[in-house]
Design a protein that fits this description.
Layout: E1 8-9, E2 30-32, E3 37-44, H1 50-66, E4 70-76, H2 81-90, E5 96-100, H3 101-109, H4 117-120, H5 131-134, E6 147-159, H6 160-165, H7 177-191, H8 204-215, H9 234-249, H10 261-269, E7 275-279, H11 283-288, E8 297-300, E9 311-320, H12 326-345, H13 347-359, H14 374-384, H15 392-399, E10 407-408, H16 415-431, H17 437-455
Parallel strand pairs: 3-4, 9-10
Antiparallel strand pairs: 2-3, 5-9, 6-7, 6-8, 6-9
C-alpha cells in the first residue's frame, strides 16, 4: 500500500481495485494547447508540517520560474480506498495525483487516467526504469500511461523508546516471529501500550495479512494468478492464528482493531505502538505528517520463515487526469519529471532538492527501492550523501538486510476487492476470541473466486 505515497509511501499504500470505478471524471485544469500555457492542480500530502509545506512551495516557485507558461496549484490529497473511489467518480481529484501500483492497470484499462505515454517517451531516462517497477503503470501494449515514482518493500517499524522501557535492546530488534511475539508482550507488560498492532480497515487489513502470509512462506493467489488460495494455503491460517495468539493469549495488541494507514501512523508516532508492519520508506510520512521523534524510530526487516517466504513489495505511480487537454498533459508530465523524477536521475537537481529539504529540516535519505536500475540508484545515493539527516544507524537492521530478501509482487487480480474481504477476516479474529478461522477463510475464498471469475 502509499511512498511519497503517503503509502507510498508511500508510503506506503492500502491499494484499490479500479475495475468497478466509474469511468467519467472532470478536471479543474485550464490550458491552451496552442501556446502551451496551463494551470494544473497537483497533489500534496494532507496535514504537512510547516517546514514540509515550505519545501513544497519553494519547489513550485522554482518550477514556475523555469516554466513561465505553467501555473501550479496545490490540492491536499492522501490516497485511501474509499475516498479515492468517491473522488474519481465525482471528478474531484487533482490533475496530477498518485495511486498505488495495484491501481495502475485497472485505471489504464478503464481509461480513467490520461494516456501520457508519448510524453513519457521523451524523458531522457524513459528507457532506464526498473522493468519490474515500470510495468505497474503500463497498458497491455507496454506503453507507459502512469509513471513510477517510488517503490518499497514491507518492513517492521519499531519504537526504540518502548523497547528500552521494556528492557529490550533497540539495536537488536527481533529476527523471528516468535521473538516479535515475545517482545510485544514485554512492551505491553512494561508500558501498557500495544506491543504490536496491525491495520485492519480500508483494505489495509488484507494488505498487511497478505504481507504476513508471504513472510510465513505462503501466498494468497496461485502462481499464474488464475485463482485465490486463501483457504488452501496453510500459511494464511497460520498468520491469522499468530495474530489471534498475540491478541487473545498475550493481550499484546492494545484495544484499537480498526486501524488504517493514517491512524496507525499517528499512534505509532505518538508512542502508542511498539511494532507494526508498513512500507520500508514510511519514515518521511511519520516525521512530516505525524511529528515522530526521530530518536524513537527503529526499522528492521520482516522475519521470514517457511518454504518459500518473501517480502511484499509495491510502490507509487503518478498519473494525470483523463480529461486533461494536450497542454495540461504536457504541463503535468513536466511537473512529474521535475518534482518526482529529476531528483533521482539528475545530479544537479538531486543535490539542489536534498540541500533544500535538509535546510528546512525535512527527511533526506530514508530507505527506498530503486525506481531506475541499481547502478543509477547507488549514484543517486552518493549525490545526496552530504545532506542525509535521517537516523541511518537506527535503520541499519533494515538497510543492511533488505537487499537479500526475495521481493514478492502484490496479488494481481481484484487486489483491492480481495484485500477488503480479508479486512473482515482479520477484524473477526481480533474481536472474537472464538472466531471460526476455517469458516472465515472458506467464505472469503468463495467470494474471492467470484471476483476472479468476473475479472476474466
Amino acid at each position: 500500500m502509499r511512498s511519497t505515497l503517503t503509502r507510498a509511501g508511500l508510503t506506503g499504500m492500502a491499494l484499490l481495485s479500479a475495475g468497478a470505478l466509474l469511468a467519467g471524471c472532470t478536471s479543474g485544469a485550464t490550458g491552451d494547447a496552442a501556446d502551451g500555457t496551463a494551470t494544473i492542480t497537483v497533489s500534496i500530502d494532507a496535514g504537512l508540517e510547516q517546514e514540509a509545506r515550505e519545501n513544497f512551495d519553494a519547489r513550485v516557485e522554482e518550477f514556475e520560474k523555469d516554466n513561465p507558461g505553467i501555473t501550479v496549484e496545490a490540492q491536499e490529497y492522501t490516497w485511501t480506498a474509499t475516498t479515492f473511489t468517491a473522488d474519481l467518480a465525482g471528478g474531484t481529484l487533482p490533475d496530477v495525483f498518485t495511486v498505488p501500483f495495484t491501481d495502475g492497470r485497472g485505471l489504464i484499462a478503464n481509461r480513467q487516467v490520461a494516456d501520457i505515454s508519448s510524453l513519457v517517451e521523451q524523458l531522457p531516462y524513459a528507457a532506464d526504469f526498473n522493468p519490474n517497477v515500470a510495468q505497474a503503470g503500463q497498458a497491455e501494449d507496454g506503453s507507459q500511461w502512469a509513471i513510477p515514482i517510488a517503490a518499497y518493500g514491507q518492513a517492521l517499524h519499531y519504537n526504540r523508546a518502548l523497547f528500552t522501557a521494556a528492557g529490550l535492546n533497540p539495536d537488536a530488534p527481533p529476527t523471528t516471529w516468535e521473538e516479535v511475539r515475545e517482545a510485544a508482550k514485554k512492551i505491553t507488560d512494561a508500558t501498557g501500550e500495544a506491543g504490536y498492532a496491525t491495520m485492519t480497515a480500508g483494505n489495509t487489513g488484507g494488505w498487511i495479512l497478505t504481507t504476513l502470509v508471504n513472510a510465513f512462506g505462503g501466498r494468497t493467489e496461485n502462481t499464474d494468478a488464475t485463482a485465490p488460495t486463501i483457504a488452501s494455503d496453510p500459511a494464511v491460517k497460520k498468520a491469522l492464528e499468530y495474530l489471534h495468539d498475540l491478541r487473545w493469549d498475550d493481550n499484546s495488541m492494545g484495544s484499537n482493531f480498526l486501524y488504517e494507514w493514517g491512524t496507525i501512523n499517528q499512534d505509532f508516532a505518538s508512542g502508542r505502538i511498539g511494532m507494526y508492519i508498513s512500507g520500508g520508506g514510511n519514515y518521511g510520512n511519520l516525521v512530516t505528517q505525524n511529528a515522530l521523534n526521530p530518536d524513537d524510530y527503529g526499522l528492521t526487516v520482516l522475519p521470514l520463515q517457511g518454504e518459500d517466504p518473501g517480502v511484499l513489495g509495491g510502490g507509487t505511480l503518478a498519473a494525470v487526469s483523463p480529461t486533461s487537454s494536450e497542454a495540461e498533459k504536457a504541463a503535468a508530465v513536466k511537473w512529474i519529471d521535475f518534482y518526482y523524477l529529476a531528483k533521482l536521475a539528475d545530479e544537479d537537481v538531486a543535490v539542489k532538492t536534498a540541500k533544500l529539504a535538509a535546510s528546512l529540516d525535512q527527511p533526506v535519505g530514508a530507505p527506498e527501492l530503486p525506481v531506475f536500475d541499481r547502478e543509477q540508484f547507488d549514484q543517486y545515493q552518493s549525490w545526496i550523501a552530504p545532506f542525509v539527516n535521517v537516523p541511518l544507524e537506527q535503520m541499519a537492521p533494515y538497510t543492511g538486510g533488505s537487499g537479500d530478501q526475495p521481493l514478492i509482487g502484490e496479488p494481481r487480480v481484484a487486489t483491492q476487492d480481495v484485500y477488503a474481504l480479508l479486512d473482515t477476516v482479520v477484524q473477526a479474529v481480533l474481536t472474537d476470541q472464538n472466531a471460526d478461522v476455517d469458516q472465515l477463510l472458506s467464505d472469503a475464498q468463495a467470494q474471492a473466486e467470484a471476483l476472479y471469475a468476473r475479472a476474466k
